Amino acid sequence: MSPTNKKQVRVRIAPSPTGYLHIGTARTALFNWLFAKQNNGVFVLRIEDTDLERSEEKYEKDIIESLKWLGLDWDEGPIKQTDRLEVYEKYLNQLLAEGSVYYCFCSKEQLEEERQAMLAQGFGSKYSGRCRLLTAEQVKENLKSTASHVIRLKVPETKITFTDIIRGDITFDAALMGDIAIAKDPRVPLYNFAVVVDDEEMAISHVIRGEDHIANTPKQILIQKALGFGSPEYGHIPLILNADRSKMSKRFSATSINEYREKGYLPETMVNFMALLGWHPAPQPSVEARGKSAVVEKEIFTAEELVKEFDINRIQKAGAIFNVDKLDWLNAQYIKKMDSKDLAKLLKVKDTEQNLRIVEATKERLKKLSDFQEMAGFFVEVAEYNPALLIWKTSTKEKTLANLKEAEQIISAIISDDFAKNKLDKVLMPIAEARGKGDFLWPIRIALSGLEKSPGPFEIMEVIGKKETLVRVAEAIKLLGK
Ligand code: GLU
Is 250 a known active-site residue? Predict the structure, then answer.
C-alpha cells in the first residue's frame, strides 16, 4: 500500500494508562512514528483513560516519560479522552435521537442466564436484543429507577470486510456479534466508541496497532457507519511472543520499557530491537571478501536509517519472537561504539582520568549498563577468589606458580612510564608465547581481576598501574603457595 497523496498521513498511538508502557505498545508507537516520518505525516499521542477504575496517573507519566526516552516524539497531544467527555456525549445523543442505539437495562445475571441458555442450545453467545423492544415510555421509567444500564448499537446482520495493510481482506459476520455495548451512559463512553469518535475528529488516516485489536475493528466500522464517518486504513501488527511462542508475559521477561531502561539497555538499542520485532529489511545481496556472493541481512539501524528503510508492507503476519540474546548483543554493539566520556556519564561515574580508563577497558564487554559495577569493581579492589581459579585448564599448580613469579620479576623491571597496553604487550607477549599463552597470561589476569571474565591483563595493568599490579601478583603467589 502506498499512502495516497490526497490524504495527509495522520497516525496515533493510543495507550491506556492502566499499566507501564509495554514493549508491545512501544513497538506500535515506533511503527506509527516511522510511518509518519516517512510520509511527512503527523503522529498523535492520545491517552485512552476512560476506564476510570484502572487508569492511574503514575502510568500516564510513565508512558510519556518512556516514549520521550525512546525518542518517539509526537506532533500532537497528549490528548486525554477524559478531557473530551462532552464530545462523546454529543455523538451518543445524536445516535440516541436517530434511534441507531438504545438503552439496555438487562442485569449481569440476566445476561449470564441468556448466555448459558444459548450455549446449551449450541449457539454462540450474543446479546438477544431484548431491550430493543422497550418503548420510549419504558426507557424513561427505567432510567429513573434502574441504576445500571448500557447503550447498545443496533448491529445489522451483515458481513463486514476491511482490507488490512498487513493481512489483506478480513471478513467478520456481524450477525454473530449481537448488539454491542458502546457506552455505559452518554457521559461514559466505552473503548470502541471513544476510539471511533477520536479517530474521526483527529482525522486519523491509518490505524496501525496490535493484532489483539483485530476483533475490535468490525465493531469500530459499525460505529463509524452509524455515525456517518468514513474508515481509516487498518494495519494489525503481530504479537510479540516468548521463545516458546506463548504470548509475551512478565513470567518470561520484563514487559515494560522502564524495566529495560533500569537494566541498562540504551534507547537506541530498544528502538533498533523493536523495529526488528515483526519487520525485516529486504535482504541485500553482497559480495563477501572471498568473492562469493551472499545475502546479508542488516541488523543495526539508527532511527534515521529506520525512517529510510522501514517498510510497512514488509511487516510479517506471524508472531514476533522476543530474543533476549539478540537484545543483549545489540546493546553491546551500541555500548562499544559510544564515546567513553558519554558512556561514563550514563554509568554515573565521575569523569576522572582513571575512571575513563576503566570505562574504556570495560566497554568492549558490557552488555548492559547495569553490568558495569560488577565488571569494573575489581579495578578498585579484587574480591576474594578461589586460588584454584589461577590455574589454567591444562596447567598445574607448580607451573602456575613459576609463571607468576617470572611475571612478577619481569613486571618489576618495567619502568612505570612504560605501563601502557602496547608496551606491556611487547615485553610480555614473547614470554607468554614461549611458556604457553594460557599457562602464562591466564593466572596474571586472574591475579589482577579475581574474575573468570574480565578485560585482558595488559588493559587492566595499564589502568591500575605498576604498583597495584605487583601487589596483586604477589598476593596471588601467596594464595597459591599456601
Ligand atoms: N487503548 C488501546 C490499547 O492500549 C489501543 C487502542 C487502539 O490503538 O485503537 O491497547
Answer: yes
